[in-house]
Amino acid sequence: MRSSSPTITTTHINMTPRISRLRRISMEASHRISAERALLITDFYKNHQAFGDSTPVQLAKAFR
User: How does pLDDT run across 21-58, given as a tens digit for each residue?
Assistant: First the structure.
């Protein structure tokens, strides 16, 4: 069975050691599902707490 993880090459990208380390940690992290997080985000959008804001602002408010 083949892995479903995408292969990303960085041959043309100059990364600082910090960014390289953060990218490696991110790529090696296991996927998780959180029912609590899903319910909180759903409740946030159902209550229109960010109605009229741009998508990035809505996301920021949702994770406050």
Answer: 999 999 999 988 999 999 988 888 888 766 788 888 88
Decide if 47 is inside a domain. yes
Give the residue numbers spanning the domain of 47. 36-63
Q: Is residue 54 part of a domain?
A: yes
| Contact yes or no for 27/8 (Cβ under 8 A) | yes
Alpha helices in the chain (DSSP H): 17-28, 35-46, 55-62
Tokens of 36: 């609590």
Task: Tell me whether residue 41 is in a domain.
Answer: yes
| Reported pTM | 0.46
